[in-house]
Amino acid sequence: MEYRRDIDGLRALAVIPVILYHAGLPGMDGGFVGVDVFFIISGYLITAILLREMQAGAFSFAAFYERRARRILPALFVVMLVCLPGAWVWMLPYQLLEFSRSLIATSVFGSNVLFWLESGYFEGPATQKPLLHTWSLAVEEQFYILAPMVLALLWRFGRAWLWMGVIALTALSLDMAHRYVWGDVTFSFYMLPTRAWELLAGVLLALYLSRRARPDGRLADMGATLGVMMVLGTMLVMNDSPAWPSPWTLIPVVGTVLILLCARPENLVGRVLGWGPLVGIGLISYSAYLWHYPLFAFARLQADGTPAPLTMAFLAGFTLILAAVSWKLVEQPVRQRRVLKTRGSLCLTGLSFILVFVSVAAVFWQTRGGIMRFPAHQQAWVSTLPEEYDAYLEGSYRHTAVASWKRIKAGDARPVLLLIGDSFSQDVFNAIQESEAFKEYLIIGDYVSAPCQIYKGLEDVSRFRAPKDRRFCANLKRPRMDRVALADVIILAGVWRPWAIERLPETIRNLKLQDTQRLFVLGVKSFPYSLRRDLLPLSLGAVKELRVSPLPEFRNANIKMRDVLGQTGFIDVMKASCGPQERCPLVTSDGALISNDGRHLTQAGARWLGDILFRTTALSEFAAPTD
To answer: How many CB atoms lie within 10 A of CB 490?
Structure first.
């Protein structure tokens, strides 16, 4: 194909915002759109090459896949290899086990499936996964496996069938993206069926240009300028809402197509995109994309998720230096066949790298994430997966609440305790279970998600919620709370926001409690700490003596609740458990973590808090009977 400098400039326009976005630097909240730009470029270039080969009768599946392997694998495998010592040094055992899975998945271009199953792209812990960004490579490679087969099949039936087939697949994929983004949003983000339409947009452009010349003159000027405005405008106004891709993604997709169609050396957009520094960054954009995320992830791991902005800015610049070296010493020699000259040597080397990664992953698993790196008293802290803590937090609550509700409907006459609230109310439930309080009660729950808050009234409170939460909370505008009339004791517990605290008196009035019903409102709790910074450097004795203050927003929430409610029915969990000065321990007397994330309770923490709540507060009347 004829070389186009503007396409390399467009690659730079895509990769720079992605790097700035992942660095967390201000002003580029929509930088992730650069990945969409890459998809369209890939679809266009690959199809243009395939069509030329098919027209010339020179297409070969083996040659095509060899070219893709020479382009993708060498730099990727080098980056993965460099990640191994960093993972061993900076990752906790459960993180190393997660990393080992990503090693294998990335090696076989299935990392998008793995990360779909594990977590969302915009979640905090995801920013500490060095290979998370390889999901987009997996999408492209999966597309590259299927696209030549589909195009070769449709080619046999003529261009009309080729056009109809690609248009139908594009429409189907776009429809799936629209439907899944409001259902399984993580599937929509990661998976080929909901991303294929972006690559297929490039395919359609290549089909169009295979028989037609690109526009020139004023029409090209206008089209290219509009395209740049659409792409950059989306990057500048979009936030990191997880509702992506969606019909809104059409804006940067169409914009990218317009740039590819209309940018010419003689118009402004073509000259800007053909500017030397942009072209240079575009040439190394693949290596830059590979290197930037591991650098950022390890920086966050080392700094407990919050490296200084200056550090991230430095790493963003250092990414380009690494990328230039990688392009010169790894990408180019393999692509130009100066090394690995034969197809066989390329395959053998690739398989060897995969074997290395699988073997290393097996060692990580065999050693339980390198648990021997930590002294005995720390191993329980660092080996438990977050999912295990989550399972404890939610599991028994969900089972017991459902079972108790069925018993009530079946006519069970025992007194009823109703817990209303978010995950903090699940903590309360676990504290009750661990302390064997409310022994004679049936316990049911009314779960209210934290972004929505506990509120019962007529006022429209959606304006107090974050924009991304309003749609989610629409059905919870007035929490059910229809079970209040069945309860003898009601406990409200949650991560209270100021607006919900101000409206607590209104909420309580609207519960319409009877004189025989008891109501308790529990304040918030906080055990802020860093496992790496605060606990791992210390001896067990020093950790047991350590005390921390709650985060200011939690302390202020409790103060505001006391002002609004007075002492009647309000239980200040922080003062009860951490003393008048609110200096809280981080481990129990036998060295077990009280909280796994600074907010929610471990099983040991639930036992510790339950003992305090049902021994020293107004809830003591519901404590387990003593012999």
So the answer is: 23
Rounded Cα distance, 473 and 314, in Å = 40
Burial of 211 (0-12, 13-18, 19+ CB in 10 A): exposed
First to last CA, the chain: 87
**Do residues 105 and 111 touch, judged by C-beta distance below 8 A?**
yes
Cα torsion 413, 415, 418, 424 to 10°: value is -130
Cβ-in-10-Å burial (0-12, 13-18, 19+) of 182 comes to: exposed
**pLDDT for 418 beyond 90:** yes
Copy the structure tokens of residue 230.
Answer: 């659409």
Pairing assessment for the beta strands 547-548 and 584-585 based on DSSP bridges: antiparallel
- 507 Cβ partners below 8 Å, 6+ apart? 454, 455, 456, 457, 500
pLDDT tens-digit readout, 544-566: 998 988 888 888 999 999 998 88
**Residue 2 banded pLDDT, cuts 50, 70, 90:** confident
Nearest-angstrom CA–CA distance, 126 and 131: 10
pTM: 0.81
| Cis-peptide into 245, omega within 30 deg | yes
CA angle centred on 541, ends 535 and 542, rounded to 5° = 50
Query: What's the confidence (pLDDT) of residue 142?
Result: 95
Hey, what are 457's tokens? 């009234």
